[in-house]
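Input set for joint prediction.
Command: fold jointly, output tokens.
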Amino acid sequence: MDIATIVQILESTLRLATPLLFACLAGLFSERAGIVDIGLEGKLLIAAFFSAAIAYVSGSAWLGLLAGVAASVIFSLIHGVASITFRGNQLISGVAINFLASGMTVVIAQSWFHQGGRTPALTGDARFERLTLPFAEALRDVPLIGHVYSQILSGNSILVYIGLLCVPLSWWVLYRSRFGLRLRAVGENPAAVDTAGISVVRLRFWAIIIAGVLCGIGGAYLSTSLAAGFVREMSAGRGYIALAALIFAKWRPWQGLGAVLLFGALEAIANRWPNLDLGIITLPNQFMTALPYILTVVILAGFVGKAIPPRAGGEPYVKER
Amino acid sequence: MSSRNMPKWADVLLVPLISLLIAFALSALVILAIGEDPVRAMAIMIKGSLGSTYGWGYTLYYTTNFLLTGLAVAIAFQAKLFNIGGEGQATIGGLGVALVCLFIPWPNWWMAIIAAILASALFGALWAAIPAFLQAKRGSHIVITTIMFNFIAASVMNYLLSHVLRPQGAMDPATARFDNVLRLPRLHDILAPIGIDFSRSGPANVMLFVAIALCILGYVLMWRTRLGYEIRAFGQSEAATHYAGISSVKIIMIAMLISGALSGIMAVNSVMGGPQRLVMNAVEGAGFIGIAVALMGRSHPIGIMAPALLFGFLYQGGSELAIETTIPREMIVVIQALVIMFTGALDNMVRQPLEAFFLRRSGRG
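tokens >
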């Protein structure tokens, strides 16, 4: 395997990890506040559709992004009304969100574009163009730095960089801001937060709105950067892989970045070599596809360090009277 | 889920019916929004699924699937376990059916169906066993692990169908067709001797009666046996059952094994009764519809029968809709999502005003 191949794999790792990263951070905010979110998949999908649709109609990827974020936030609010306001089962609400997105995207796409549930291909400004980072050209020939900076990091869509910046930002918000402290507290012991005179309901709604925004960017990235347009079911289980990454990272932001890069690398390798020949055995493509899920089960089983979710996760908060 | 503040009939019938009406009203709005006529859509659906024995043949075929997956989810729900893995368990159950049908030369269909039911139940139960064990022993959340196992099952099936079970020279990832001897009697064959002329092409078959029998058995198990009592008690209060000396590991394992086995048996209908070979995605989302069916039926083995028929109607009606109008087949996924949302997650939205209403009435009387 030569350097060019490695660079290629790492480059595609970064691109494939980005939608996972947004969804993983979205799950992080939601679950840290005690709202279990298996609706990440649905939010990615609905955002991917509305981003592509509006980007196509308006010719602007940025307007598309805005529409995708709005759609995703609306789905977040539905989840919030069901699981916070009406104290419904968060898992069931998440399942419903995923089906709603899966059905609605195709129904609306068919009605708007008549192309079998997809949007027309996006061109020009309807897609996010690739950015060349400063000095990337100058550093291109420097060994190692040139490979990493000019070839892997540079030349991606702006959303990739926004995603990477969201990691330290999320860390800072969760661990260094007052809002973050309260948010984490509400996921562990909402009664204590309530006693301190802070509204549990409001905090949790903020958390899921943040989750909606992040999922929205992730979905927009799928259809206006990674691909050129929406196709049905294009989220393809990424919301669930992000959920897996979140568990893998034990609900922490930096580790989340590590987990999505790992899962992104698995996808990149599976794309590059459909059947991976390791000398002794040949791993079929399907094994690589299943690996993130297998790893998550192993982690959940507690064989490689225990993954302990936020304590109040999944339980509606009932105010004492 | 039971409530002390309103009569039982309201709890069991009125709440799901109102939720269903809201879900249907919103679906009608979606149909209006995409420029179609909801009344005409409903008429096409009714005619296409219930208007002929041909339509009934498909409606009841889908109903059979949903009876089994709905029962599977319902029994796990009774133990407060949310088995989202019906899809994966049915996929692996299908593998059991295919192995039994392809590699053993059965002399007739009824011996084959018994073997296929046993094999699919075994395979489905085994696929549920790992998440169940991890939940019982290591506290891994069953919802997440069963979701993961759905994806792993899809990969396993993809691999087996494209590399191992595909006949030489065949292009599509599927097994060979089963021997014609194994063709299950369809409603046409069953009803013809008693003089009822039923359409030959509808795939509804003997598995319908197996599914109904299993629902009745499920009722007997849950409400007439000690084990059923223990499962329900565990679902109501884990702590209480612990003090009563009931092992939580045992209950979780048994409830999930039964649930997995029932999901697996669904594949006998969708593989042996349908295309008579194992194809990719033979389950077609029935595992997930089971969730909606169980929620509407209040997790009661008899209660799920009506919702299973309703979804059978929606499935067949949705196909007809896609043929006759511009409404795509995915419209039923939207309806399914709304039903899950309103009967499941937003249950309190309907329940709270109703409870208040009944409280006021009983206060006056």
